[in-house]
Each structure stands twice: as structure tokens, then as C-alpha cells.
Specification:
single chain; 171 residues; alpha+beta; 2 domains; 20% strand; elongated
């Protein structure tokens, strides 16, 4: 029973830590502070429980370590599902294809910025779109219908002007 308590408490603590780290890097101070209070309370109680009983029962350390590993993975899954923050999608395509992609994106409510660029095979058009991270999969799926395009997705820490639609739904 003690192993299950150690395992699940550590699993929860590490998952909270992973989400807190993401919130911290994204500048969400309040949520990160609240999660850090939860994290440290669990860590102090749990670590003292494991260390105080370590000589009599070394399997506590095994449960603690195993939960740490699984907790990292779980925290990443949770953060991915939450998909907090903003992302920038850049598409580079030949001029005609880029015009089609731009029209499709604008028809679906996206704010789009384009600029001329040049690649190995000549003149191209770069398309720049800012979206909520939750919208990245549907947006990328929409533009992946076009072949011979170059797509990058990057996280955005902050946005100081302009607006982004709350949720994108393909028309």
C-alpha cells in the first residue's frame, strides 16, 4: 500500500512540476506560483517519507524513481492536451500555391501575413499565421493538403498587438 501511495503522489507531483515549468516559461505567473506551492508541499512530505524509511524498505525508493519517470511523460501529455499559449505557423510555397493557401486560411477566419522570399528553387511566398496552440493540429491538417510546401511551427511567448480568433473551425 505504501508503494502505491508513494508512486501516485510522486507521479502527481512530477506531472504538476512539468506543467508548472511550461506555465513559467510562458509567463503565466499566477498559475505557476499556485502549482509550485502544491508541488513543494507534496515533495517535502513524500521525500521525507521515502528517506525516513529507506533503510528498512528500499523499495520505497524504487517506487519513487519509477513514478518520477512516468510522471515526466504524464506531465508532457497533460501539457500537450492543455495546449496553452500561442504558436506561429510559417508556410513557404511557390507563389501560386501560396495564394491558394492564403485564400483558404483567410476564408476560414485566420489572420494571414505574406511576404516575398527566395528559396533554392527561386521566388517563393512566405505565409505567416498566429494561432492558439490548440488550433495548430487543425491548421496544419488544413494546409498539409497542399504538396511541396515547407511548414514550421514555433511557440510564441507573448503577443503585443493584433488579435487572434478564439478557436478556428474549418468551413
Amino acid at each position: 500500500m505504501i508503494y502505491a501511495i508513494i508512486f501516485f503522489a510522486k507521479l502527481f507531483e512530477v506531472a504538476v512540476t512539468t506543467v508548472r515549468l511550461v506555465l513559467t516559461t510562458r509567463g503565466n505567473r499566477v498559475a505557476a506560483t499556485i502549482l509550485s506551492a502544491i508541488e513543494i508541499a507534496i515533495w517535502i512530505i513524500l521525500t521525507s517519507t521515502v528517506l525516513l524509511g529507506l533503510n528498512e524498505d528500499p523499495m520505497r525508493a524504487v517506487a519513487f524513481g519509477a513514478a518520477f519517470v512516468v510522471g515526466i511523460f504524464l506531465g508532457m501529455v497533460i501539457e500537450d492536451k492543455l495546449a496553452l499559449g500561442l504558436a506561429e505557423i510559417e508556410i513557404i510555397a511557390d507563389f501560386e500555391k501560396a495564394k491558394e493557401i492564403t485564400q483558404l486560411l483567410r476564408f476560414n477566419g485566420y489572420g494571414v501575413t505574406t511576404f516575398d522570399c527566395e528559396g533554392r528553387e527561386g521566388k517563393k511566398l512566405a505565409i505567416n499565421v498566429k494561432v492558439h496552440r490548440k488550433d495548430v493540429p487543425v491548421t496544419v491538417k488544413m494546409i498539409r493538403k497542399f504538396d511541396n510546401i515547407f511548414v514550421t511551427v514555433a511557440d510564441i511567448k507573448s503577443l503585443s498587438a493584433g488579435s487572434i480568433a478564439r478557436r478556428m473551425i474549418m468551413k
